[in-house]
Write a structure and sequence with these properties.
Distance between the termini: 71 Å
Strand order of the largest sheet: 7-8-6-9-10-11-12-13-14
CATH class of the largest domain: Alpha Beta
Number of strands: 20
């Protein structure tokens, strides 16, 4: 039996450590590949896997249980394969999306087997090369990906070698194993990863700087309530060295910073849309101002202005907040303000984030399919004056009524899609009784029908906005597929009516 507390380095003795790896997606495969390289004895368990991935496991000599056998009943609780029981694992490394109440996780916990995610493993293995990267942590209900990508560009523009990883981009273990190494890992952290992450001081990650962008209702069914979800997000701040960046108008993030156990001397840095106070980054009229990373907090140094930021996209409050937060992290990492400004001017957001996909007869069509929760949808709805709203999908236990109430005055019409239509329809009937509502039933070709309905209600000056406030997996492959189908339907309609 190995003592896991001794496994703190790539150069520790990982040979013959018995590990059960749950899941064989991108992160799961990177875990198996890494541990196989280190000589651990593995068993991979996955309900689904690409045939090519399974072939690679065969080449690596890794044992696996795939498909129906992954749910086989052993001598322990239902759903635990006998092969895992026979392995007598000393460690379980799970894909983060596996629910904490799943049979495999409950079995591990009942047998006092530690459960890690790839982030735990990567922190221990970060010294594979002599170029050991500093970490930056980014999480929040909304805006994680844009902020992560923007920070990465800022760091690279400043002359560092940085990579976005974790919940987006390159799997973090692949980044750790890059032969050239990195100066910075910009780690986007989902609430699922943070749930499992061990943040014990001296054991868990110690980021150079960290941010929780915002906290709102999301994944409540998975976490078991808002308070547990918020507390989980706060783990991103733990053990921060230079700066904990918080949202100055989000009381939840302020509380998380106050509760965080950080390295002595770590600075709490606020960001927001208003004039920055001491140790904050914010806006004075149309200029982004740094009052945090200056010799004296009474100083104020410009970083960028609206003309720079609008090169990214529509100047929404959400985008302005993300730019301020990213700038704070880059400044914490020592990047010059002029380099940050240059990165902002050249940055472009991913598709499906308040993306203009068509315009005709004074009506603009925007794809914000990535707005998979009410907080993200609110950022979109707040950006426009009059909206025909395409809304709905898989609600994940979230109540949309407060969102409808807040923006009812902006709605020209609502086009309701998805399997969880009833709660959305009920919220609209109660909070927006004067708004025209069209229900798109599940047995139709969803996006063409939704776009046609939106076109029938929109008038000159309106925005048709796909901001579903819900997950996409009920009717689409993912949020990108949903956005692509929306954009294709919009283009087809505009061509037909040209």
């Amino acid at each position: 039996m190995k003592d896991l507390s001794t496994l703190t380095s790539w150069h520790s003795d990982w040979r013959n450590l018995r590990v059960g790896v749950i899941g064989l997606g991108v992160s799961g495969f990177s875990v198996a590949d890494t541990l196989a390289e280190l000589g651990a004895k593995l068993l991979v368990i996955a309900e689904n896997a690409e045939p090519e991935t399974v072939d690679i496991l065969d080449v690596l000599g890794v044992d696996y249980v795939i498909g129906a056998d992954a749910k086989a009943v052993g001598s322990s609780p239902e759903g635990v394969p006998q092969a895992l029981i026979d392995l007598q694992p000393e460690l379980i490394v799970t894909s983060p999306g596996v629910r904490p109440d799943s049979p495999l996780i409950r079995w591990a916990q009942s047998n006092s087997i530690p459960v890690w995610v790839d982030i735990d493993l990567a922190w221990r293995l970060r010294d594979k090369t002599s170029r050991v990267a500093q970490w930056l942590h980014i999480t929040g209900t909304n805006g994680k990906t844009t902020t992560t990508q923007l920070v990465t560009d800022m760091l690279n523009e400043g002359g560092a070698r940085a990579i976005a990883c974790g919940n987006i981009g390159t799997p973090i273990l692949d980044a750790i194993r890059d032969p050239d190494g990195f100066d910075f890992l910009v780690v986007e952290l989902s609430s699922f990863q943070l749930h499992y992450l061990d943040v014990t001081p001296g054991v868990g990650p110690s980021p150079l700087a960290s941010v929780v962008l915002n906290i709102d209702y999301d994944h409540l069914d998975w976490h078991g309530g808002y308070q547990k979800y918020a507390k989980t997000k706060g783990k991103a701040y733990e053990n921060s060295q230079i700066a904990c960046v918080f949202n100055a108008i989000d009381k939840a993030t302020i509380k998380l910073v106050e509760d965080a156990d950080v390295v002595e001397g770590c600075l709490a840095v606020g960001f927001g849309l208003g004039a920055p106070g001491r140790a904050e980054i914010g806006y004075v009229e149309d200029i982004l101002i740094d009052r945090a990373f200056v010799e004296d907090f009474d100083q104020a140094q410009p970083i960028a202005d609206f003309a720079d930021i609008e090169k990214i996209g529509v100047l929404t409050p959400h985008l302005l907040a993300n730019v301020a937060a990213a700038s704070a992290l880059a400044r914490a990492a020592g990047i010059d303000r002029q380099r940050i400004r240059h990165a902002i001017r050249n940055f472009r957001m991913d598709a499906h984030r308040i993306e203009l996909v068509g315009e005709s007869a004074g009506i603009r069509w925007f794809d914000d399919s990535k707005a998979t929760n009410p907080h993200a949808a609110a950022a979109s709805l707040a950006s426009f004056d009059k909206v025909v709203w395409v809304v709905g999908g898989l609600l994940k236990g979230v109540d949309v009524e407060p969102l409808v109430k807040r923006f009812a005055h902006k709605l020209r019409a609502a086009i309701v899609v998805g399997v969880d239509r009833e709660p959305v329809l009920a919220a609209l009937a109660k909070q927006a009784p004067g708004v025209s509502v069209v229900e798109i039933t599940a047995d139709t070709d969803v996006m063409p029908a939704a776009v046609a309905a939106a076109h029938a209600h929109a008038v000159d000056g309106d925005v048709v906005l796909l901001a579903p406030s819900a997950a996409s997996m009920d009717q689409f492959k993912d949020y990108a597929d949903r956005g692509d189908q929306f954009a294709a339907a919009v283009r087809a309609l505009l061509e037909e009516n040209a």
